[in-house]
Amino acid sequence: MEKRTFKNTIYAAIAGMTKAFSSPNRLEIIDLLANGEKTVEQIATQTAITVANASQHLQVLKTARLVRSRREGTFIFYSLNGLKSYAAWKALRDLAQEQEPAVQVTLQRFRQALGSPVQELRERLGELPRDKTIIAYCRGPFCTYADEAVQLLHANGFKALRLEESYLDIQLDYN
């Protein structure tokens, strides 16, 4: 391949990928998928867009190789296409905001953490230690579930803090 052709091909691929990041809806979808795979219907509900619109955004992200899909019966599940997809999102996110110093934690502690969606937290309060500060974490700084968890914990007499970074952020920092 000629040098010019090679450069044109590479820059076109990068431009296509960065174009995939150019929509607020697609950014929110990437942020959601950082928390695990979801169906088109789940994504549409959680982003307050139509299923058709979510599907179009997912196709752009898939073409840019930022997400992958798998079929299970009549449902199509989408997930991030590996840690590098998340790293690209995190790099853009970090550029857009000034980061506060992260709470220093180890991956081992995250692996031992009690994972619970905020909707189930109320039922699991009895499992939490009252003599320790509880760290609530989520998908990252734009996720509001950790804030809700901290409010619920405070209202029930627990000491709680919100970790600004997500589990994947910490994993990137320690790898």
Compile the SSE list and pairings.
Elements: H1 3-20, H2 24-33, E1 38-39, H3 40-47, H4 51-63, E2 67-72, E3 75-80, H5 83-96, H6 107-112, H7 118-121, E4 134-136, H8 145-155, E5 160-162, H9 167-174
Parallel strand pairs: 4-5
Antiparallel strand pairs: 1-3, 2-3
Helix pairs in contact: 3-4
Description:
With 175 residues, the protein is mostly helical. The chain folds into 2 domains: 3-96, Winged helix-like DNA-binding domain superfamily/Winged helix DNA-binding domain (Arc Repressor Mutant, subunit A, Orthogonal Bundle); 107-174, Oxidized Rhodanese, domain 1, CATH 3.40.250.10. It is built from 9 helices and 5 strands, in the order ααβααββαααβαβα. The strands form 2 sheets. The chain has a 3-stranded antiparallel sheet with strand order 1-3-2.
Quick tags:
175 residues; mainly alpha; Arc Repressor Mutant, subunit A; Oxidized Rhodanese, domain 1; 2 domains; three-stranded antiparallel sheet; two-stranded parallel ribbon; 53% helix
Total count of domains:
2
- What is the CATH architecture term of the largest domain? Orthogonal Bundle
Gyration radius, rounded: 19 Å
Which structural class matches the secondary elements? Answer: mainly alpha
Full CATH superfamily name of the largest domain: Winged helix-like DNA-binding domain superfamily/Winged helix DNA-binding domain
Write down the CATH class of the largest domain. Mainly Alpha
Q: What is the fold named in CATH at topology level of the largest domain?
A: Arc Repressor Mutant, subunit A
Low-confidence stretches: 99-111
Number of helical segments with 4 or more residues: 9
**Average pLDDT over all residues:** 82
Summarize the helix and strand pattern as letters.
HHEHHEEHHHEHEH
Q: Beta-sheet strand percentage? A: 5-15%
Percent range of helical residues: 40-55%
| End-to-end C-alpha gap | 35 Å
Shape: elongated
Total E-strand runs: 5
Main beta sheet strand tally, sense and closure: 3 strands, antiparallel
The strand order across the widest sheet is 1-3-2
